[in-house]
Amino acid sequence: MYTDHMFRNEGEKSFLRNWSGSSCISGIANLAWKMLQAVNRRLPEGELPSPKWAPGKMLKSYERSAPTLGFPRVTDSLCPRCVPEVRNAIIKGEMDISALISGQPGEIKAHIVEENGRVLMRKVCDKHGPFEDVLSTNSHFTRRIESLFLGRDFKCAEDKDVHRHGTSTIKFGRGAVLTVDLTNRCNMMCNPCFMDANQVGYVHQPSFEDIKAILDRAVSFKPRRQVIVLFSGGEPTISPHFIEAVAYAKKIGFYRVMAATNGIRFAQSEEFTRQAHEAGLHGAYLQFDGTSEEKNRHRGVGNLFDVKLQAVENMAKAGMKTTLVTTIVNGVNNDGIGSIVEFAIRNIDKIQTIAFQPVSFTGRDEDIDDQTRYAHRYTLSQMVEDLKTQLNADWEPLRDWFPLSSYSAFTSVMDLLQGDDAPWGWSACNCHPNCGIFTLLVVNRRTHEFAPLAMWP
Ligand code: SF4
Q1: For 264, which of 54, 75, 145, 226 is 20 to 30 Å away at the CA?
Q2: 239 alpha carbon to ligand 1 midpoint, in Å?
Q3: Which atom of ligand 1 lies at the shortest distance from residue 234's CA?
Q4: Cα–Cα distance between 163 and 6 in angstroms, integer?
């Protein structure tokens, strides 16, 4: 989930109480839109430009393709037991890594079905038997999100060095976030840890030359859209190359450079935070499990919540914005996500976005038994209901939430406005509508009242 903020010179009166004016404006806007569409249909079609950064002409909405959506449907999937077996075989030298591209190790088909208002994924591995998972607890919600998918971006061109992954070869767009792992070491030892940091028995820490090669390849193909470079790990700030990697990404033209961090180094040192910002670090994706020590205790650090607060302060002082990143585990911390939104609203001058990430059972959680996985699984449809209930807000799952990809509608307009000679296209996320959703909240910076964008007067 994403929040963002907009600056307003609001008066004393709460905008939440002013909704009737908003309804009137929205009615006029609707009428104007329908009239515009009627005129538009009668006009001859114009040509869209071919900007320098794109592999061809910009796409009209009807030229965008989409994957098969709806349910029931069949999709490609993985057997959760075969995957570690394949990985271990590669590490031990029993299987060549090229099998990941030329073969289909661990791949099985999955059936996505609707049952009693839920959406389920069922699959059967010949070797390991059947698996079932819940994709959504509300099929109406998921159907609506799928119906709003904006369509795919340009086909990727001339990128055999970057996107060739066998069955999973990426064929459209260039993604929105490039994650570069700088180390698998960490100064914490959490459970869960998606990376199994510190535990795999070897250190993986790319040299600066390796990091440069990754970044250079990432700018080598079209569409040359802006992506966020996200340095991750393990804990990226303990890599000896962290600062110079940030500076290099900035130097070769990446617009947004971020770090996915537990915040310890930023909390420890204002000087380090300032250096990172001066090198080009725009902000941090800060691991943030809840708004109390108790909600952070499971990570095994005594004063972790105080550390988070200090990191947020130091980053704000250095001129950086924080995105709070919360891994949500059903039955563990899903009861505290409303208070995270309230915390972000109270600190709207320092916090720009929240990214709620339902747990994915990888890394240290890979060996979880089926019963626990089923109990801890948390879906996007549960999240939007929990937020509405916990905040007791007019924040409607079927009105205020959209597929993450739909923000590309705004970036298409920016692509047109910036002209054909721009070196980079605007960032466009075209992820699958089952992958991510977003919402926009408007926050009054003085009173800390908030409303979803649709209810903003
Ligand atoms: S801080 Fe992140 S990388 Fe480090 S152990 Fe915890 S989850 Fe893993």
Answers
A1: 226
A2: 14
A3: 3
A4: 36
Contact criterion met (CB below 8 Å) for 59 and 153: yes
Same domain, 404 and 357: yes
Task: Please say whether the beta carbons of 419 and 51 come within 8 A.
Answer: yes
Q: What number does the ligand 1 atom closest to the CA of 262 have?
A: 1
Instruction: State the Cα–Cα distance between residues 165 and 25, nearest whole angstrom.
Output: 49
Residues lining ligand 1, Cβ inside 6 A:
186, 188-190, 193, 195, 197, 233-235, 262, 287
Report the pLDDT value the prediction gives residue 10, as an integer from 0 to 100: 36
Structure-token pair, residue 165:
């992954």
In tens, the pLDDT along 89-121 reads: 999 999 999 999 889 999 999 999 999 999 999
Distance from the alpha carbon of residue 91 to the mean position of ligand 1, in angstroms: 23
Q: Where are the alpha helices (DSSP H) in 252-366?
A: 264-268, 270-279, 293-296, 304-318, 337-346
Range of the structural domain that residue 90 is part of: 69-148
How high is the mean pLDDT of the chain? 89
Domain boundary among 101, 133, 148: 148
DSSP β-ladder status, 437-438 and 402-403: antiparallel
The span from the CA of 408 to the CA of 414, in Å, is 10
Distances (CA, A) of 213 to 176, 207, 219: 19, 10, 10
Clarify whether residues 127 and 178 are in a common domain: no
Q: 399-414 pLDDT, tens per residue?
A: 999 999 998 888 999 9
What's the confidence (pLDDT) of residue 78? 94
C-alpha 334 – ligand 1 centre gap (Å): 19
Quick one: what percent of the chain has pLDDT higher than 90?
68
What pLDDT score does 164 carry?
A: 79
The verdict on 157 and 76 lying in the same domain is no
Q: What is the pTM of this model?
A: 0.87
Residues 144 and 166 grouped into a single domain? no
- The answer as to whether 64 is a domain residue is no
Please confirm whether the linkage preceding 192 is cis (ω < 30° from 0).
Answer: yes
Atom number in ligand 1 closest to CA 187 = 4
Measure 89 CA to ligand 1 centroid, in angstroms: 26
Whether residue 399 sits in one domain with residue 277: yes
In ligand 1, the atom with minimum distance to the C-alpha of 327 is: 7
pLDDT digits (tens, 9 = 90+) for 43-69: 667 788 999 999 999 998 889 999 999
DSSP for 390-430 reads HHT-S--TTTS-EEGGGGHHHHHHHHHHT-TT-SSBPP---
Q: Are residues 348 and 272 in the same domain?
A: yes
Tell me how far the alpha carbon of residue 344 lies from the centroid of ligand 1, in angstroms: 22
Query: Which residues have a Cβ under 8 Å from the Cβ of 121 and sit 6 or more positions away?
Result: 77, 110, 111, 112, 132, 133, 134, 135
pLDDT band at 20 (very low <50, low <70, confident <90, very high): very low
